[in-house]
């Protein structure tokens, strides 16, 4: 069986990605800062016949990520797919274009952009040695087009998309797929655009077919 590591394994998209890949014969490694919710998610996945284990790691801490990846390698095996989609709550009043400061922008850059770089670098050496693997990044619509009310997040997420695109071009000849999904919709079960199960199925399709770099879901948010 193959192994997918899901960084940012929350109850929404992360859990749906785990189900989609688990049903496609992947063991699942769940990663986030707090392990207790991940243990609960692993138990829910087990009820669906999916083998999953939880690992605590902070995306902003390269040493924690490397330790988690080493633990995954020892307990499950080599990582075949890395899903990078960490999220967190933030103060909406501080991310608009007129309210954004250099410190605010740097905070989001550290979490989203540097977090994506940290995650990729934790798994890339082994993938390069094996000449196979996949990296998949998820962001919001502001990674693709400017959204004034989400300026601070958009600056960081556009950096993630640019990084992913460069990786895609660099690594494709080396047997490693890199993909990206920009989500311009509220992630909610039953939503026409943002249903997490549908988004997870789309990610699985991208990683399996490897015929395109990205998909962009939905229009820009109405508040743009």
Task: Reconstruct the topology from this structure.
Elements: E1 2-7, H1 13-23, E2 26-32, H2 35-46, E3 52-56, H3 62-75, E4 81-84, H4 102-130, E5 133-140, H5 151-171, E6 176-183, H6 196-209, E7 214-217
Parallel strand pairs: 1-2, 1-4, 2-3, 4-5, 5-6, 6-7
Helix pairs in contact: 1-6, 3-4, 4-5
Molecular structure report:
It is a single chain. With 224 residues, the protein is α/β, with parallel strands linked by helices. It has a single domain (2-217), classed as NAD(P)-binding Rossmann-like Domain (Rossmann fold), CATH 3.40.50.720. The protein has helices spanning 13-23, 35-46, 62-75, 102-130, 151-171, 196-209, and strands at 2-7, 26-32, 52-56, 81-84, 133-140, 176-183, 214-217. Strands 3-2-1-4-5-6-7 form a seven-stranded parallel sheet, sandwiched between helices. Strand 5, helix 5 (151-171) and strand 6 form a beta-alpha-beta unit. Helix 1 packs across helix 6 (196-209). It is globular. The relative contact order is 0.14.
């Amino acid at each position: 069986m193959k192994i997918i590591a899901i960084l940012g394994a929350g109850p929404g998209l992360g859990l749906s990605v785990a189900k989609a890949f688990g049903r496609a014969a992947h063991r699942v490694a769940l990663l986030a800062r707090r392990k207790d919710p991940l243990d609960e998610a692993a138990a829910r996945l087990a009820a669906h016949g999916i083998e999953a284990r939880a690992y605590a790691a902070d995306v902003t801490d390269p040493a924690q990520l490397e330790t988690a990846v080493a633990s995954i390698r020892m307990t499950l095996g080599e990582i075949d797919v890395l899903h990078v989609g960490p999220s967190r709550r933030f103060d909406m009043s501080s991310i608009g274009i007129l309210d954004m400061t250099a410190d605010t922008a740097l905070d989001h850059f550290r979490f989203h952009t540097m977090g994506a770089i940290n995650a990729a670098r934790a798994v890339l050496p082994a993938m390069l040695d094996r000449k196979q693997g996949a990296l998949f990044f998820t962001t919001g619509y502001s990674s693709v087009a400017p959204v004034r009310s989400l300026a601070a997040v958009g600056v960081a997420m556009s950096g993630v998309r640019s990084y992913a695109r460069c990786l895609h071009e660099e690594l494709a000849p080396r047997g490693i797929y890199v993909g990206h999904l920009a989500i311009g919709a509220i992630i909610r079960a039953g939503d026409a655009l943002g249903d997490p199960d549908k988004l997870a199925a789309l990610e699985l399709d991208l990683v399996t077919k490897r015929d395109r770099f990205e998909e962009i879901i939905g229009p820009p948010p109405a508040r743009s």
